[in-house]
Amino acid sequence: MSTPSSDGDIAPRPGRPKSEEKAQAIRAAASRLFLERGLQGTSMDAVAREAGVSKQTVYGHFAGKEALFRACISDKIAQYGFAEDALPEAGDTATQLLELCRRFMALICDPQVIAMYRVIIGESVAHPRIAELFYETGPAATKTAVAGRLAQLVSRGELRPHDTRYASQQLLDMCTGDIQQRLLFGLLERAPPHELDAHLRRVVDDFLMLYGAPS
């Protein structure tokens, strides 16, 4: 556990820059508060208190609450490897697509992600900007990363040429099925592993029927 420094901020662990450690503490604190209170109910003062840093330190890392919210969403996406250079490369086309689908479903079935969807839905009517921020930084960014990976597969001749932006949405929609809905509605506590695996294998088979390169 980190120990407080003399100015009340969290002292960094050895080997990590102090500024990086503080930014991480701020994002972690903000994520907790956004889930508990929503974006409207979370102030930068509250984030500073939760993170154990000064408000000036928070603003030193993040220009405002919107930037901090975006950073929290981006962190969660990165946790599941959705940066273009981190997407799966090993194996044949079907194996790569299956791993991509598994990562996506792990992301959207993450309990924190499900909780954030509920928060966004609850606030979006009165505050549509919150939904816009979440969509741009979360679902839209994930789709862009997947479209980039599909474009790579097309360039290598592993998929036939197609509109990769449109196809990425098809792929992700097929993956989601009704599993995310059941989680959002509290009808499931977690995605059933065997059901999910069988579902994603069928998704990959169907996707390759649409976009697989001619043999």
Q: How do you describe this structure in short?
A:
The protein has 215 residues and is an all-alpha fold.
The CATH architecture of the largest domain can be named as Orthogonal Bundle
Shape: elongated
Fourth-tier CATH superfamily name of the largest domain: Tetracycline Repressor, domain 2
How many individual helices? 11
- Determine and state the CATH class of the largest domain: Mainly Alpha
Mean pLDDT: 89
How is the biggest beta sheet arranged?
none
Strand % is under 5%
Over the alpha carbons, how many angstroms does the gyration radius reach?
20 Å
**What is the string of SSEs from the N terminus onward?**
HHHHHHHHHHH
And the CATH topology of the largest domain?
Tetracycline Repressor, domain 2
Helix content: 55-70%
Q: Count up the domains.
A: 2
Q: Please report the total strand number as a whole number.
A: 0
Structural class: mainly alpha
Low-confidence residue ranges? 1-16
Q: End-to-end span in angstroms?
A: 56 Å
Explain this structure.
With 215 residues, the chain is mostly helical. The chain has helices at 18-37, 44-51, 55-61, 65-79, 93-108, 111-124, 128-137, 139-155, 164-176, 179-184, 193-211. The chain has two domains: 18-69, Arc Repressor Mutant, subunit A; 80-211, Tetracycline Repressor, domain 2 (Orthogonal Bundle), CATH 1.10.357. The chain has eleven helices and no strands. Residues 1-16 have low confidence and may be disordered.
